[in-house]
Amino acid sequence: MDTEREVDQATRRAFFDQVRRHTGIAMSERKWTLLEGRLRRRLRELALTGYRDYLHVLEAKPDEVRDFIDLVTTNETSFFRTPRIWEYFAGQFLPRWFDAHADTPLRVWSAAASSGEEAYTVAMLCEEFRSRHPAFRYRILATDIGDAILRKAAAAHYQGRSIDGLQQSHPELLAKYFVAADGGFSAGPALRANVSFRRYNLHEPPRDIGAMDVTLLRNVLIYFDTDGQQAVLENVRRAMAPEGVLIVGESESLSRFEMGFAFEQPLIYRNGRRP
Ligand SMILES: C[S@@+](CC[C@H](N)C(=O)[O-])C[C@H]1O[C@@H](n2cnc3c(N)ncnc32)[C@H](O)[C@@H]1O
């Protein structure tokens, strides 16, 4: 099996090209060891003897592309990731927004949702806000490019590190909004009722996604090169409400892009009105 032998540079490049073509993720040679480990598992599952064979499968079987995307994406996430964002959202954004828009449902977009912890974090905070302001309404759209991870998000069943983190940071919310099931915890009906899921590649123009008041685009821009980031930000902006808020991840910044997002606080930007 030539999977044990060194993979030549042309083959490595062909894989990086496939990753970029299907996800927009820019991988360099540094990432080969990571990618190789993930590919090796898939080759075993398909009983293939070489990496080149898998490239042929990718070209010949369009269905394989979805599995390929699942294996090349990194889905690291957690409930209440980056606490200061959630302090801003619950403590500043929601009260201000509700004062100005009491009659309209808030639309929140978790734009690289992974397994759903981000979307359900929003749902918990919105439910808490609604318990104090019964007229408040909201809808959350969670999108991701990965089929398998979106199925996990929609199943909303969590265990291990994910649930341990929530237990430590917000035990009262875990007790209130989750139910123990199958050795873990499932999001209860109050959280599920307002969250919907859809497959969406950030590199495609957004269709039927629009006028989002809050967009969480966190820990995904880092995977794209500068041109890719610019293209994704343009797509995302098209789906945002005028003056909607864009929140990025801890190691992401929009400072080098001139495209109508105004800095509000670190990691938080506001969509400027279109000219
Ligand atoms: C590291 S996770 C971030 C999850 C969450 N936003 C957070 O900050 O915890 C990155 C997610 O981006 C998704 N992703 C990667 N490329 C994408 C693309 N082109 N379009 C949509 N989602 C993408 C991956 O599938 C993965 O679930």
Characterise the protein shown here.
By secondary structure, this protein is α/β, with parallel strands linked by helices. The chain folds into 2 domains: 2-72, Chemotaxis Receptor Methyltransferase Cher, domain 1, CATH 1.10.155.10; 83-271, Rossmann fold (3-Layer(aba) Sandwich). 46% of the residues lie in helices and 19% in strands. Strands 6-2-1-7-8-10-9 form a 7-stranded mixed beta sheet, with helices on both faces. Strands 3-5-4 form a 3-stranded antiparallel beta sheet. Strand 9 and strand 10 form a beta hairpin. The chain is globular. The termini are far apart. The mean pLDDT is 95. The structure holds S-adenosylmethionine. S-adenosylmethionine is lined by residues 23-25, 73-77, 81, 112, 114, 118, 144-146, 149, 201-203, 218-220, 223, 249.
CATH architecture of the largest domain: 3-Layer(aba) Sandwich
User: What Rg do the Cα atoms give?
Assistant: 20 Å
* CATH-defined fold name of the largest domain: Rossmann fold
Small molecules held by this entry: S-adenosylmethionine
Mean pLDDT score: 95
Number of domains: 2
How far do the termini sit from each other? 59 Å
Helical residues, percent: 40-55%
Number of helices: 11
Low-confidence stretches: none
Structure class: alpha/beta
Shape designation: globular
Helix and strand sequence: HHHHHEHEHEHHEEHEEHEEE
CATH class bucket of the largest domain: Alpha Beta
Strand content: 15-25%
How are the strands ordered across the major sheet?
A: 6-2-1-7-8-10-9
